[in-house]
Amino acid sequence: MKMHRIIKSGYKTVMAHKLRSMFMMLSVVIGIAALTVVISLGKGTEEKIMSQVKKLFSSNTIMIVAGKGKMESNQRMGSSSSTLKLDDFEEIKNRVSNVLEWDAVQISPDRQVSYSGRNTTAIISGQTTAAETVWNIDVKNGRFFTEAENRNLSRVAVIAPNVAKELFGTTNPVGEEIRVENIPFQVIGVIAPRGMDPHGIDKDSEILIPLNTVLRRVVNMDYLMLGKILVTDEKNIASTAKEVEQILREKHGINGNEASDFMIVTPTMINKMVKDINRVFNIYLPIVALISLIVGSIVIANLMLLSVNERRKEIGLRKAVGAKTKDILAQFLLESSSITIGSGILGIAIGLFALSFLYPRMGIPYSVSWGTLIICFVISVLIGILSGYFPARKAANLQPVEALN
Amino acid sequence: MINIKNLSKSFTKDGSAVIKAVDNMNLEIKNGEFVAIVGPSGSGKSTLMNIIGLLDVPDSGSYILNGKEVAKLSLDELAEIRNQKIGFVFQQFHLLPKTTAKENVEIPLIYSDKKDITGLAVSALKLVGLEERINHVSTELSGGQQQRVAIARALVNDPELILADEPTGNLDSKSGLEIMSIFQKLNRSGKTIVLITHDQKIAEHANRVVKIVDGKISEQYSVNSPRDAEKEIAEIKNSQEQEILERRN
Ligand SMILES: Nc1ncnc2c1ncn2[C@@H]1O[C@H](COP(=O)(O)OP(=O)(O)OP(=O)(O)O)[C@@H](O)[C@H]1O
Ligand SMILES: [Mg+2]
Q: What is the pLDDT of residues B153-165, one digit of tens each?
């Protein structure tokens, strides 16, 4: 019940020492603003990458990529590693019970495509009939190709929206004949837009063709770039990935410590990869912001000590007229934490303003969460208590006579 | 009310020399008394007063306040008694800067459970004749007015005991008399008052004078007919008016 009086009285002294209070606030404001910005940018980029990754990499997915190298290196050009073949996937399907569906892909980018005088370049993507479910492809107009068409090396094509627009404009492509270089294909379907994938491949400039047709008639080889497996039971995805790896190593005759000639990617690996990429935002920059906050609290602690020394008489008087040790402790703690809380709120506001100001100009995605704001707020309260504690204790333990003389 | 037996307090000065500021002193002050403490500078008056006011602790001896042995009380209990039972008036006033008269008087109430602290502060300021200066910042007030704010602050919690360490030391004689008239009124209303002064005339407003030399009581006597500060102020006024009249003639 006495607390609000002590708060009121403390507020007056803060206002009476505006300049000193402002100095105390400065470093905390900067630190908290920086922390808000950095955490929000980190979360923003992470969320953006994640959402793109999730589009082709849901949590029940295992990817198998040909070659030893990094995933990024070969994808744009189509794979030149001759390690992954169709029978690898058939074997996996037969031996691993957790495999629900699989699709294998070979790509041939930058192919000239034409339709009655109109030209464009497209990415030819050979896939199995399972692609529709495995990659979540939505056929808007017409249909997807069938198993029979894949088996018979039929020259049928399902085209993505950009290809449809470039070649057909407003006319209905379904049933028309296009040419991929010199080979004629019949358009049997148009799919819904899918956007860019995380590697920058424009999924809307693709032409999907049965895998066998692509292997025999377009690229003329029998190895694959990658495959995607959907599992039935997500919980066991890690052990399923291990199993798949074992089978492939065995099949490819790789023993002991020899490196695999393929790479297996699981959702956890992808998450970790995205987090690793974002380490600068998630760890290093917040540490820099925290260091500035530590400096800030040292500044506050020193200015508070100065304030305690300057105000010995006030403290002595308060004790002489009946303030208890805990009253003085509370007063100084409230003073320091009201300053840091004020700075924290100001810092958060400045941080949010900076984000909304920077975003349209720099295009860095950001994401503000309550969690971030609460973390920043709690940190400001903690700084106030930590930096105020020793000065406050010093003040509280002053003897009234000593302080008054 | 106050019972002091064999009380001693010494200070070490410059590391070695020990000064016995209060030396084996015995003193009793009864409820409702008005006692003036006099003595040369450095004789230990303030030291004694600080101990009586629970601002300082003695080295040895016993101090019983209202039947309680002070040495046995905790820090919080001492703070509580300072807040509720004792009003202290200092020579240097000790008002907070940049703070109004009213806010200064409210300070003891902040640490009490009393309600309506503003109302109590205002009536204490009225009691010392400062109702027109309630919202003045302390530095805008004259010395006499500042000391009256300090007295109002000492009174605001309605203490039984008022301790004043040279409250008139920094004031001119008329302001000093005004302060003494407030103390005399308070004493008539039943408050026990202990006052330190260098000034023999000021001391003679009390009922008893205690003289201290070298930390010991050298003599003490009752004042048969104490000076009446109010009368003295009236006399000064009269003589001033007389003077003005004489000059006109
Ligand atoms: N905190 C202290 N440290 C060291 N010596 C002190 C302290 N306080 C008082 N003394 C010494 O104790 C003695 C008594 O001091 P005290 O202030 O009680 O005297 P006083 O009678 O109030 O004097 P004055 O009339 O000048 O106010 C003096 O010699 C003083 O120097
Ligand atoms: Mg003194």
A: 998 999 999 999 9
Distance CA B123, CA B125 (A): 5
Chain B residues close to A323, C-beta within 8 Å: 79, 83, 110-111
Residues A81 and A192 in one domain: yes
Select from B36, B167, B199, B202 the least CA-distant residue to B91. B167
For A321, the closest of B97, B99, B153 (CB atoms) is B153
Kind and range of the H or E element at B122? helix B117-127
Residue A333: domain span: 3-51+273-404
Q: Where are the alpha helices (DSSP H) in A147-235?
A: 147-151, 161-168, 211-213
Q: Indicate whether residue B46 lines ligand 1 (CB < 6 A).
A: yes
pLDDT digits (tens, 9 = 90+) for B213-241: 999 999 999 999 999 988 998 888 888 88
Global pTM exceeds 0.80: no
- On the question of pLDDT at A259 being above 90, the answer is no
pLDDT at position B165 is: 92
Closest in A323, A326, A401 to B55, CB measured: A401
DSSP state of B215: T
Cα angle B119, B97, A389 (rounded to 5 degrees) comes to 95
On whether residue A136 sits in a domain, the answer given is yes
Same domain for A347 and A221? no
A404: closest chain B residue by CA = B94
Ligand positioned closest to the Cα atom of B37: 1
The answer to whether residues B113 and A1 touch, using CB atoms and an 8 Å cutoff, is yes
Task: Give the ranges where A155-262 is alpha helix by DSSP (H).
Answer: 161-168, 211-213, 237-251
CATH number, position B68: 3.40.50.300
DSSP A373-395: HHHHHHHHHHHHHHHHHHHHHHH
Judgement on whether residues A201 and A137 belong to the same structural domain of the protein: yes
Residue whose C-alpha is closest to residue A403's, from B94, B148, B11: B94
Q: Are residues A285 and A221 in the same domain?
A: no
Phi then psi for residue B62, to 5 deg, are -125, 145
Same domain as A192, residue A126: yes
Q: Clarify whether residues A16 and A130 are in a common domain.
A: no
Final residue belonging to a domain, choices A232, A255, A286: A232
Q: Please, are residues B207 and B30 in contact by the beta-carbon 8 Å criterion? A: no
* Secondary element (H or E) of residue B20: strand B17-29
Complex prediction ipTM: 0.91
Q: Please tell me whether residues A32 and A93 are part of one structural domain.
A: no
Residue-wise pLDDT for B111-149, tens only, equals 998 888 899 999 999 988 888 889 999 888 988 899 889
**Nearby residues of B179 by Cβ (< 8 Å), 6 or more positions away:** B144, B147, B148, B151, B167, B168, B171
- For residue B61, is pLDDT > 90? yes
For chain B, the domain total comes to 1
**Residue with CA at minimum distance from ligand 1 atom 7:** B11
Q: Is residue A247 in a domain?
A: no
- For A8, which residue in chain B has the nearest alpha carbon? B110
> Ligand 1 centre and the CA of B60: distance in Å?
17
pLDDT at position B78 is 94
